[in-house]
Design a protein that fits this description.
The structure is a homodimer.
Chain A: E1 8-11, E2 15-20, E3 25-31, H1 33-41, E4 47-54, H2 59-66, E5 70-78, E6 84-90, E7 96-103, E8 123-126, H3 131-140, E9 146-150, H4 153-158, H5 160-169, E10 172-176, H6 177-184, H7 189-197, E11 203-207, E12 213-216, E13 221-224, H8 238-253, H9 258-275, H10 282-286, H11 289-302
Parallel strand pairs in A: 1-4, 1-8, 2-6, 4-5, 8-9, 9-10, 10-11
Antiparallel strand pairs in A: 2-3, 6-7, 11-12, 12-13
Helix pairs in contact in A: 1-8, 3-5, 6-7, 8-9, 9-11
Chain lengths: 310, 310
């Protein structure tokens, strides 16, 4: 990666997760949307992380992030405990999730303040934090080329006006299929995407897990296949890892034309597929570019009309 | 379509369906897997239909089939009533189906006998009838180039040995995702497809409705997007219409290389998307080639990595 690649600013949660599956558990492992995004995105571009942790955040977790071209100048450390989240997965392919416990801890008082050098970031990812915090960040960013936001059902239910304001100010909205249907009141995804596009973003991405992700612009649709899965160990973080791959590709390319976005969707799928193969960020943190390019070529072949593999 | 296009032999059910949705109903309308397949496939190639109806089968239904390059020389008419099927759809996008009534009527005694001229058919579709009947048909076919079969959960539950014999004798198996998981005992679709491929077919197609369809061969996977839906009026027959588009493309091309199969999957998606837009076979019976090619180009663009639409 050349020094000329634009750094990506990400604002979101860094957490300690406890995850149960029918056969395994992991306790207080590195999690939070921003962590997954950072480790996926940093394969492609330098990252600037704005988040908050407690004074219990381990040196090992900090060292892992620092080892990856992730600038921690915006990682605030407050007295108290780091955000804790506990969930249980079930179902044939661990597709059912039940949140057992959420302890915001120091995250309850999170007010993102961008270090001065971060304000000129050209590529920005607003992870799924409260919309008012996302807007606070946008107010501090000077002139980004590409701003993407994610959200969760909680904000659709409790902070819709703020979310609409966010949608009006970003280039790219990422949602999952249920969120798209709920937000728009439309049953079918093309109509749901059009409704979100009407707020102004150039791009709406609807994530559907193992069924792949759809990229909608005003007059085109792209379907990024999910990488064919052979196993799922912990589904946590797939969406944030996807966003890391996508925005990483945008930052590395230096523009966000349809060609970059479409290939970026495939990088997103690759990082999402890696994320679920192990607990926490273990698998994306150990992924190397040749492996990523190998999976990318499988995805490219999955949408090729050629009679033989390139 | 030139006279040189190979006719497709299809064996399956012709039925009269009664369908309820939350807002509409249709009574005793033309249905059955073979009907949907015929009307979709006949857009691409001549069809030879082997099926059975009762003496209540209307001249209008017969005339509709005959008007479409569908040879009815193998359509047996028995004294009694035509197969009747009644179902109710529900859910946000009518994705839930409950079968309310099945009356086999004359279909209960169906023993497919191929007219002599049909025995040399090069492209064959065994719709989802009882596996022993599918095997009866295979015994009467001389040397087909491409034989595809479909099935339903009922035969997985009640006729697995017969189904395994069918899988050993065909080139292409079509199943939906739930059937693939159940048949194989594998949770993930790539492993499920490999298990089915181990019986010998060169191709396994796993249909996932609005999530698109996957084509597996020994060393490649292709994902055909579903055409972006704006409405669903009656989901009946989408899978059979899909098969009609796919096998139609194979017959028209005269071979079943990966390029033909992959593009054929897209034609299948187009015909499936048309099938659900109206009750019975109404929409596929009225579809014209320019409209089909228009939808195909949307699907091609959905999997294109180009920065602008071709």
């Amino acid at each position: 990666m050349g020094d000329s690649v634009s750094p990506i600013l990400v604002v979101g949660s860094v957490a300690l997760d406890t995850v149960h599956t029918p056969t395994e558990s992991a306790t207080d492992v590195l999690g939070g949307g921003a962590s997954y995004f950072c480790l996926a995105g940093s394969i492609f571009a330098p990252i600037r992380l704005v988040a908050v942790v407690g004074d219990d955040f381990s040196p090992a977790n900090r060292a892992l992030l620092e080892s990856r071209n992730i600038d921690l100048g915006g990682l605030e450390v407050l007295k108290g405990k780091t955000f804790r989240w506990t969930a249980r997965y079930s179902g044939v392919r661990l597709e059912e999730r039940e949140t057992l416990d959420t302890q915001l801890n120091v995250f309850a008082g999170f007010h993102p303040v961008l270090p001065a050098a971060y304000r000129s970031s050209r590529v920005v990812f607003l992870s799924n934090i409260q919309p008012d915090l996302q807007l606070d960040v946008l107010d501090q960013v000077e002139k980004a080329d590409f701003v993407a936001c994610d959200t969760i059902k909680l904000w659709l239910d409790t902070a819709r006006p703020g979310l609409e304001r966010v949608f009006r100010r970003v280039d790219c909205v990422l949602v999952n299929d249920e969120e798209a249907v709920q937000f728009s009141g439309q049953r079918f995804l093309p109509a749901a995407a059009r409704q979100i596009l009407s707020y102004g973003p150039r791009v709406v991405i609807i994530k559907r897990g193992e069924n792949g992700s759809l990229l909608f612009t005003r007059d085109r649709v792209f379907l990024a296949p999910a990488h064919p899965l052979e196993t799922v160990r912990d589904p946590t973080g797939a969406g944030d890892a996807f966003a890391g791959g996508l925005l990483g590709a945008v930052a590395r390319a230096g523009h966000h034309g349809d060609d970059v976005l479409r290939r970026g969707m495939l990088y997103g799928s690759v990082l999402g597929s890696l994320a679920v193969e192990d607990f926490s960020v273990l698998r994306i943190a150990s992924a190397k570019m040749p492996e990523i390019e190998g999976r990318l070529s499988t995805l490219v072949d999955m949408i090729s009309l050629n009679g033989s593999r390139a």
